[in-house]
Every structure is written in C-alpha cells, then in structure tokens.
Predict the structure of Reverse transcriptase domain-containing protein.
Amino acid sequence: MNQLLTIFNGATIFPKIDLHGAYKLLRIKEGDEHLPFFRTKYGSYEYLVMPFGLNNAPSSFQNLVNDIFADLLDIFVVVYFDDIMVFSSSEEEHVKHMASVLQRMRDNNLFAKASKCVFHASSVEYLCYVVSSEGPKMDSSTVQQILNWPQPKNIKALQSFLGFANFIIVSLKIIPKKSLLSLPSLKNILLSSSMRKLL
C-alpha cells in the first residue's frame, strides 16, 4: 500500500472490477489433472481447472493476471488477485484506460462479477482502504475492527492481533515501529496480567 500512495497521486476516477470465478480461469497443466483429484462414493474425479485451496493457487492466479496486465501495472492499473482497480486523472484518460482494460479482459476470457464492480467512482473501497483523489485512507470498518478487537486470551490470539496491527501500521506508515507500544490499547493488552502469564 505504501507505493500506492504515490501511484494514485493526481488520480480522480477509480473504477474497480471484480473478476468472476478467479481460480477457474487457470487450466491445470495437461497431464497433471490426476494430481488434484478427489473421491466420492460414486468414484474418483479430476479437476481440469485450479480448485480453490491448493497451495500454489493464489500465486499462480496472481501471476496470470500480472502477465495479462503487465504493461499497464502501476501506470493506471493495480491488480490484487481478482480485484482490478483502474485509476485516471481525467475523463478522457478514464475512457481510454477502461477500454484498454476491458479489451484485455475480453481477449483473455476474464469475466467481471457485475454486482461487485464499481464504475466511474470518485472514491472506492480497495483492500481495507478507501481510495480517492485525497489518497488512500483506512476503511471505517477496518478502524472499527481495530477498536473492537477483543483482548487476546492466548499467544495465538496475541500473534493474530499483532500481525494485523503491524500490517495496518507499516502499510500506512502512520506510526513509527518504535512507538508501537505507545498505543494505549496495545500497551494495556500487553501489560494485562493475563498477557504477562502468556509471555
């Protein structure tokens, strides 16, 4: 997200396209169909396309969309798995950018899920942020999630909280890492008697 702060600089129009059936766009390599198989009481079946849940499915799909939009990435397109965001500074640019992206989708048999797409928007939710001409800001539901985070009761819950907090802090660079413990809620959690027992 840090680099997006500079990429979006000057953009005023932010359409977002959600791809439909993302992993189903990846054909299993011919000859390897027998590898991700499953059995039922009616017999054994092989996948012809990438099923959800395989270890390499996310990175394989990200590679696919990165290859399709390679020359447009970070110029006027940002892609994260099945979410494509286009950013333009003018109406004229917007029309050209969208035509280019939609043509790529058509050429590569990518389909959009209309109910999750946003077109010609001055602000859009993207990866826990609201992106507008003023730059990315944290989505209010993410802020609420942080404020309402339950006090961790074990090490795993603490690690989960710290991982999420680190993602937010580092990605936005709103607080230097050194001052992480100066956050009152985090400090209270870490200093609570139940946490001291865990640590």
